[in-house]
Amino acid sequence: MVSKMQLHAVGEACPGYTYAGSEDFESLEEGKEPVSCENCIHWVRGRCTIDMFDKVLSSLDQT
């Protein structure tokens, strides 16, 4: 099972991350939705459709 912390860390480090919400992501105020795989356009039904999750997670574990 993937934790919320992992989803956040991978989202922050993923070169393929693309926010799935409004186009005004840059102006989100503190306390709003953080970067996470869960709000990426490539995260569908609990999986990364561009197969980056495991690759990015492994690279984080090595640092």
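(the above was protein one; protein two follows)
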Amino acid sequence: MDKRYNALPLADQLALRQQAIDDVLAHPEWTLAQAVRHLKKTMRLTTAEMAQLSGVAYRTVQDIEQERSEGTVQTMNRLLGMLGLKLGVVRRAGDDGA
């Protein structure tokens, strides 16, 4: 956890994780960069911690956060996979496929 915060009990850490998941799922309009920044902030992680937990290079996480890169599908699945999420493709409501 980010050293700027006091350590939280496990129950509180799990509550933050669930809140982060709920927030991302509730905002499909967010860009991937916005989602990554929100996850990191809500879960009280540093960029280095997020990179280590997800297995993604520090610089890659930093580039995605700062919108210098959109990241690959594989990279985003690693970042989202920390929370049991997976990047997917869905048909938008009202699209008839034409």
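Reviewer note on protein two: The two ends are 47 Å apart (CA to CA).
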